[in-house]
Amino acid sequence: MFDAKRLLGAMMEARSGSSAGSRLDKAAGSGGLGEAAAALGQMFKGSGSAGTGGGLGGALGSLAGMARSALDDPKGQLKAGNPVATGGLGALAGGLFGGRGGALGGGLLAVLGTIAYSAMQKAGHEGEAREAIEQDAKRPGASAVPVDEAQASATATLLIRAMVSAAKADGQIDGTEMQRILGHLDEAGVDPEERNFVLEEMRRPVDIEALAADARSPALAAELYAASLLAIEVDTEAERAYLQRLARTTGLAPEVVSQIHRHLDVPEAPATA
Questions:
Q1: 67, 75, 218, 227: which one has the fewest Cβ atoms less than 10 Å from its Cβ?
Q2: What is the pLDDT confidence band of residue 40, given thresholds at 50, 70 and 90?
């Protein structure tokens, strides 16, 4: 099986010339996300579900104290060089997974998982988010907060599918755009299996129902929506309609969708019937 985290990182690098980077910077610099990251870390630290290897749960658990210290004493922690104090959640992700490829993909999982949790928390669904994340941690497959390498790989694969699907919101990806994306992946050093996976996904018809079926919890659905929002500029009616349909099909509460848009600083289109 290919390295899904590396491929996710390469997909984000392929979006580097777009607004995706600035949206992530906006979200990662949010103090609210730092607080959510600390809460997630404490959740896994206290539950014994931290996991090992590529698990985000374990990583957040081990660094929960770092995030909490930055929140409680930002000036002192800034002097001490705490990466969360100096660079926000983006620095936390960099500290966990710093680098390119799989490292970048792991950092993206960290940020997107925290955006999902924070959006549900701010929308008044914190209890539902905690329950969903804790339940996901106990079963194989994709999870909003992966606790081991297998879950991280499954989650990264689902998010890649979501990003490619969103890119097809205006219809099929034309040959020029397809070659641009594949060119970026080649530059990132992806292997033939990873490249072929993306190529096959780009050629598939849009199937929101299949994505929704694999987003098995509200927290994972929120993460999938956030990844989709990063994949497109949201400057056409087709893209706005796609996002609305995705939210409806995954069962995301409107207030959670609104919070995701706020975190990523993307205006939300008026709801349609």
A1: 75
A2: low
